[in-house]
C-alpha cells in the first residue's frame, strides 16, 4: 500500500489512521505561505473543532491575535465513550487536558462565552470580560438536554438498570456497570435515540449491537431480549445503511420499534414511556439506554446566530453548507457539531470542515476569496460486534464515499473496520487536533 497516497487521500481521516499517528504527518500538502495580519480572531470552544482550528491558524498566520475561550480543563475524546460503555476501555482512555493540545501563540481564556453580539463583534465571558473580534469561529459543540426526559436524571445512571453513555467518561463507565448487569442477568434491554439532530448517529446502534453481542456470550440466547427504539421510520439516515442494519437486526433477533421517541422514565417501576404517532406507549425494561435530545448551547441560541426557520427547537448556526460561513455575518464561521448543516456531527466531519474555514478565513485576511468547499463528508465506524465494524462514510447526498473502494467494503462487518475504530481512530483524531491531519 502506498502510504503517501493514503495520507493525502480525500477520505484519509479514518483510512490514514489504519497505521496510527506515525503516518499522520506523512504526505501532508506543501506548507502554505504565511499571511501577515494583526486580525483579532476569537474561537469559542476548544473541543475537536476549536483546537484543530487554532493549531492550523497558528501555522498560517503571522501576528494574528488568536483567543480561544473554553472553561473546560479536560479534553474529551468522545468517540471512545462507546468503548468505555461496553467495558472495552477505562474512562481514562477518553480524557486529556485541554492545554495539552493548544499551540503556543494563542491566548486561552478558561471561562465560558456567555453572550455573542455579532453586530458589535464582541464575545462576553463568564468572568466579565468583553472580547472584540474581527473574525469569530463558533465551535462550542452541543448540549445534551437530559431534562427533556421526564423522570430522568443523571444521578440514576449506573443503578436502576439505566445507562447514558453520551454524558461523559464517568457516565459511560457507569453505563457499562448497568449494561454489564443486564448481560449477566438477562431480561429486556431497551435502546433509544432522540428525535433531534445528534452527534455520531451511529453510536446508539453501536451500543445496542455491542451489548447484544456481549449478552449472547454471557447470559446467552433466550435469556434476554433487545428492543431498539428508532425515532422515525428508519434505523439510519442513509437508506442503504438503514436496510443493512435492518437485516442485521433480523439476523440477531433485535426488535426494531419505529417512530418511538423516549419521553419519560419511571425508574421505580422500570418502565419507559415513548411518544409514537399513535400516542404514548410504555415499555418495561431491565436495562434502558438513554440518549437525550441535543441542541446548540444557549449562548448561540440567544446570540441571533441560529437559523430562524430550520431546526427552530435546536438552534444550529445559520451557515452556508459548503463554506460554513454565516449567512448574515460574514466574519462569523461555525465549526463542528454546532454548525447548521444537514450532516456532519462527527469528528471525521470536523477534519474536513476545518481546512474549509481556514481557507476562507485566510483568504479574507488577504483580501481574496476562498475556494474550498465542505461536501458533507461524515463517517461512522459502525461497530456490530466486539471485533467487527462497518466503515460507513457518506456525504450530503447520502452517497457512500468509501476511502478504499475495492479494499474495505462499507457494508461488510470487517475486522479491519473495527481496528480503525478501536485502535487507529484515536491516533488520527489526535493528529487532527494538532492540525496535522
Ligand atoms: C458517544 C459518542 C461517540 C462518538 N463517536 C464518534 C466516532 O466514532 N467518529 C467520529 O468521527 N465522531 C464521533 N463522535 C462525535 C465527535 O466526538 C464530535 O462530533 C466532535 O467532538 C465535535 O467537535 P466539536 O468541537 O464541535 O465539539 P466538542 O468536541 O464537543 O467540543 C466543544 C467544546 O466547546 C466548549 N464549550 C461549550 N460551550 C461553551 C461556551 N459557552 N463557551 C466556550 N466553550 C464552550 C466545551 O467545553 C468543549 O470543550 C462521537 C460522539 C459521542 C458523544
Automatic annotation (TrEMBL):
Protein origin, superkingdom: Bacteria
Pfam family for this entry, one: Pyr_redox_2
GO BP annotation list: sulfide oxidation, using sulfide:quinone oxidoreductase
Residue span(s) of domain FAD/NAD(P)-binding: 40-142
Regions that span the bilayer: none
InterPro entries the UniProt entry points to: FAD/NAD-bd_sf (IPR036188), FAD/NAD-binding_dom (IPR023753), Sulphide_quinone_reductase (IPR015904), TAT_signal (IPR006311)
GO molecular function: FAD binding; sulfide:quinone oxidoreductase activity
SUPFAM superfamilies named among the record's database cross-references: FAD/NAD(P)-binding domain
Protein name, per record: Sulfide:quinone oxidoreductase
Native source organism of the sequence: Roseicitreum antarcticum
Amino acid at each position: 500500500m502506498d502510504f503517501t497516497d493514503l495520507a493525502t487521500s480525500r477520505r484519509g481521516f479514518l483510512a490514514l489512521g489504519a497505521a496510527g499517528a506515525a503516518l499522520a504527518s506523512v504526505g501532508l500538502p506543501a506548507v502554505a505561505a504565511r499571511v501577515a495580519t494583526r486580525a483579532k480572531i476569537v474561537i469559542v470552544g476548544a473541543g475537536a473543532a476549536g483546537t484543530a482550528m487554532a493549531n492550523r491558524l497558528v501555522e498560517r498566520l503571522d501576528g494574528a491575535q488568536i483567543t480561544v475561550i473554553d472553561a473546560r480543563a479536560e479534553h474529551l475524546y468522545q468517540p471512545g465513550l462507546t468503548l468505555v460503555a461496553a467495558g472495552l476501555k477505562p474512562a481514562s482512555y477518553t480524557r486529556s487536558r485541554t492545554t495539552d493540545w493548544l499551540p503556543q501563540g494563542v491566548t486561552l481564556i478558561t471561562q465560558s462565552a456567555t453572550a455573542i453580539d455579532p453586530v458589535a463583534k464582541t464575545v462576553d465571558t463568564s468572568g466579565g470580560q468583553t472580547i472584540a473580534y474581527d473574525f469569530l469561529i463558533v465551535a462550542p459543540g452541543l448540549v445534551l438536554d437530559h431534562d427533556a426526559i421526564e423522570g430522568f436524571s443523571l444521578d440514576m445512571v449506573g443503578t436502576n438498570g439505566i445507562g447514558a453513555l453520551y454524558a461523559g467518561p464517568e457516565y459511560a463507565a457507569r453505563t457499562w456497570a448497568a449494561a454489564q448487569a443486564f448481560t449477566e442477568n438477562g431480561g429486556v434491554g431497551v435502546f433509544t435515540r432522540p428525535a433531534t439532530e445528534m452527534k455520531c448517529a451511529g453510536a446508539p446502534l453501536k451500543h445496542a449491537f455491542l451489548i447484544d453481542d456481549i449478552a449472547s456470550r454471557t447470559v446467552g440466547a433466550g435469556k434476554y431480549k433487545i428492543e431498539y427504539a428508532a425515532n422515525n421510520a428508519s434505523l439510519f439516515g442513509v437508506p442503504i445503511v438503514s436496510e443493512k442494519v435492518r437485516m442485521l437486526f433480523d439476523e440477531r433477533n433485535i426488535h426494531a420499534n419505529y417512530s418511538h421517541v423516549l419521553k419519560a422514565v419511571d425508574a421505580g417501576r422500570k418502565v419507559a414511556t415513548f411518544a409514537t404517532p399513535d400516542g404514548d406507549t410504555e415499555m418495561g425494561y431491565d436495562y434502558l439506554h438513554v440518549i437525550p435530545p441535543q441542541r446548540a448551547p444557549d449562548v448561540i441560541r440567544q446570540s441571533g446566530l441560529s437559523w430562524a426557520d430550520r431546526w427552530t427547537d435546536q438552534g444550529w448556526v445559520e451557515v452556508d453548507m459548503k463554506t460554513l460561513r454565516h449567512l448574515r455575518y460574514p466574519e462569523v464561521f461555525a465549526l463542528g457539531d454546532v454548525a447548521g448543516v444537514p450532516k456532519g456531527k462527527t469528528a471525521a466531519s470536523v477534519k474536513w470542515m476545518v481546512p474549509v474555514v481556514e481557507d476562507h478565513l485566510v483568504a479574507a485576511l488577504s483580501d481574496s476569496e476562498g475556494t474550498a468547499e465542505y461536501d458533507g463528508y461524515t463517517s461512522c465506524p459502525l461497530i456490530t460486534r466486539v471485533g467487527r465494524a462497518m466503515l460507513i462514510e457518506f456525504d450530503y447526498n447520502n452517497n457512500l464515499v468509501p476511502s478504499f473502494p475495492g479494499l474495505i467494503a462499507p457494508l461488510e462487518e470487517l475486522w479491519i473496520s473495527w481496528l480503525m475504530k478501536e485502535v487507529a481512530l484515536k491516533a488520527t483524531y489526535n493528529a487532527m487536533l494538532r492540525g496535522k491531519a
